[in-house]
Each structure stands twice: as C-alpha cells, then as structure tokens.
C-alpha cells in the first residue's frame, strides 16, 4: 500500500519578469499535460547544485529565449494539488535583453498588474498575484 505523502514534490523557481513599462510577462501552458491551457508566471524545476537564482535565469533562457536579472524574493508558496506538491520560490526579475519567444509554451503576453485577473492561472498562482498586489 502506498502512502499519500508519496506524491511527487517539485521545487520550482518562478520569475515575475517586469519590463520598463511596468508590465509582467506571463505564458500560457500547452494544452496537453497537467493544467494545460492555463496562464502562469514562467519558471521551472531546480536542478541539483543550482541556486534558485541560477535556476530562474536558466529556465527563462530555455523557455523564453531572454536574459533577465533576478531581483528580490517576493514569496514562497507550498501548494499540494491532487497529483503533485510544489514549492514555488518567486522572485521579482527585470527583463534585460532578447525578444521573448514561446519556446516551451503556447503563447506569451506582457500584461499590467491589474490585467492579471483577466487570465486563468493554476490555483497556487493566486497567492503570487495577491502578493504582487499587496506590495504594489
């Protein structure tokens, strides 16, 4: 018999990427797979030996083809879905160079803080949006 606590746990570095117009870069997950079609803040799983800042920089380069500066920590969220436990370590980031491309997602969009609620995000992302609004 397996234990309920045996669901996978992923530690994810998440980027809230700001441009000079005070817009945030979000991306839409591909339709296949868990939470497909929902919007998210870009990021990905930390690799062994990597700091969270290194993880965020690498993931953004791989997923969006851009260079960012990882800035202040915003929030850390532990969230358990039915199939997965995640720890999201979220940092403010600043867009530096490149042209964002949807390399590993369906679509990308620059949006204002107020526009975030017009998009459907995974449940855990609600806390990120609330933290952004309270620190604005």
From TrEMBL:
Binding annotation for 8-oxo-dGTP: 29, 40-43, 125
Enzyme Commission (EC) number: 3.6.1.55
Principal EC category: hydrolase
Domain (Nudix hydrolase) ranges: 7-135
Pfam families in UniProt: NUDIX_4
Top-level lineage group: Bacteria
Record carries keyword Plastid: no
Keyword Hydrolase: yes
Keywords: DNA damage, DNA repair, DNA replication, Hydrolase, Magnesium, Metal-binding, Mutator protein
InterPro entries registered for this protein in UniProt: Mutator_MutT (IPR003561), MutT-like (IPR047127), MutY_C (IPR029119), Nudix_hydrolase (IPR020476), NUDIX_hydrolase-like_dom_sf (IPR015797), NUDIX_hydrolase_CS (IPR020084), NUDIX_hydrolase_dom (IPR000086)
Residues that hold Mg(2+) according to the record: 43, 63
GO molecular function ontology, one term from the record: 8-oxo-7,8-dihydroguanosine triphosphate pyrophosphatase activity
Any GO BP annotation: DNA replication
Cofactor: Mg(2+)
Catalytic reactions on record: 8-oxo-dGTP + H2O = 8-oxo-dGMP + diphosphate + H(+)
Family: Belongs to the Nudix hydrolase family.
The protein, known as: 8-oxo-dGTP diphosphatase
């Amino acid at each position: 018999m397996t234990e309920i606590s045996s669901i996978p746990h992923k530690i994810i570095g998440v980027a809230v990427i700001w441009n000079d117009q005070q817009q945030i870069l979000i991306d839409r997950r591909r339709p296949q797979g868990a939470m497909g079609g929902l919007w998210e803040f870009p990021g990905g799983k930390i690799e062994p030996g990597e700091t969270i800042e290194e993880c965020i920089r690498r993931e953004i380069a791989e997923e969006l083809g851009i260079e960012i500066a990882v800035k202040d920590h915003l929030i850390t969220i532990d969230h358990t879905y039915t199939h997965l436990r995640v720890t999201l370590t979220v940092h403010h980031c600043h867009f530096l160079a490149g042209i964002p491309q949807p390399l590993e997602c369906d679509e990308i969009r620059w949006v204002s803080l107020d526009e975030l609620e017009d998009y459907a995000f995974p449940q855990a992302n609600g806390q990120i949006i609330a933290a952004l609004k309270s620190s604005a």
